[in-house]
């Protein structure tokens, strides 16, 4: 790569930094080879002390030229990176990972494409759901470049393409679902987005592995209204349960009355048991109607119990 385009590329990268892929005008190995060859040329010049001045300059000039060539001809791609080599503007081959060689000026290389799994945050603000509720949705898109050649040659900036496509698909998906579905069926919404994005980006050499809905935010007044609605629903359920219990209890009482109607002895025993449960605690007092005492013959029983309690030795 010549010096002027290299400087222009560095200035362009400084103005618009791209963290998702990088450009490598000069590699570390190229710089090392330049230093080695230049030093070798200087040593060759030092050995030609008795030669003519022009002859003495040949080794150092040759060393600097060869080193300068190697500095821009040797490139290195990391294990997870690939790049395209263009010869006179036409695609020649895909290079990487590891070191590779190009012809400066004649060959140019694209920016290095990272083929690891990457994550992109996507946000849709004030998007309307199917039931016209404005929501803010945050999602995470996991994607990977599986064909670097297509990603370089088929789309100008695949990172921006992924981000904008994900935002558009997220808004469209929000418009097709109601608020309740978005809150309770986030996984289904994520699968739908993953399918839509993968169909769109597959021709670019990119696969969308998954989409996760991170958060669904609704307006505060609507959130308060939904909270009051949920509370009212819980109170309604509690009243229904209480009414059902009262109905079941009254039904049991009706059944018990039918049994006690033809069996007065059982009714008397039940009444005595109830009185015993009431007065078994120390200091308890129960007021019983006189008609109930006469009907069940409790006067003699209670009197006997009282006399027994008085005659018991202290």
Q: How is this structure best described in words?
A:
The chain has 314 residues and is of the alpha+beta class. It folds into 3 domains: 3-113, no CATH class; 118-218, Band 7 domain (Tetrahydropterin Synthase, Chain A, 2-Layer Sandwich), CATH 3.30.479.30; 263-306, no CATH class. The chain has 11 helices and 10 strands. It has helices at 3-15, 28-47, 53-73, 148-153, 158-175, 179-184, 186-201, 220-261, 264-279, 290-296, 298-311, and strands at 21-22, 74-77, 81-87, 90-95, 98-101, 107-109, 112-114, 118-128, 134-145, 206-217. A hairpin with a 5-residue loop joins strand 8 (118-128) and strand 9 (134-145). The longest helix has 42 residues, at 220-261. Residues 1-20 have low confidence and may be disordered.
Q: Key terms for this structure?
A:
Tetrahydropterin Synthase, Chain A; three-stranded antiparallel beta sheet; 314 residues; five-stranded antiparallel beta sheet; alpha+beta; 3 domains
Q: Report the sheet with the most strands, covering strand number, pairing sense and barrel closure.
A: 5 strands, antiparallel
Q: Assign a percent range to the helix content.
A: 55-70%
Helix and strand element order: HEHHEEEEEEEEHHHHEHHHH
Through-space gap between termini: 117 Å
Strand content: 15-25%
Number of domain modules: 3
What best-fitting shape do the alpha-carbon axes yield? rod-shaped
> Strand tally, please?
10
Q: Give me the secondary-structure category.
A: alpha+beta
Q: Helical segment tally?
A: 11
Tell me the quaternary state: single chain
User: What is the overall pLDDT average?
Assistant: 79
Low-confidence stretches: 1-20
